[in-house]
Amino acid sequence: MQHTVKAPIRFEGVGLHSGAPVTLTIQPASAEHGIWFRRIDLDGTDTMVPARWDAVKQSPLCTRLVNAAGVEVSTVEHVMAALIGCGVHNALIDVTGPEVPILDGSAVPFVRAILARGLRNQRVPVRAIEILEVVEVRRGDAWARLSPADTLRMDFHIEFSDAAIGRQDKSMTLSNGAFVRELSDSRTFCRQSDVDAMRAQGLALGGTLDNAVVVDGDMVLSPGGLRHRDEAVRHKMLDAMGDLALAGAPILGHYEGHRAGHAVTNDLLRALFAQPQAFRMVTCDGAQTARLPGVGVTHREIPAPV
Ligand SMILES: [Zn+2]
Question: What residue numbers does the annotated binding site for Zn(2+) cover?
Answer without folding.
Answer: 78, 235, 239
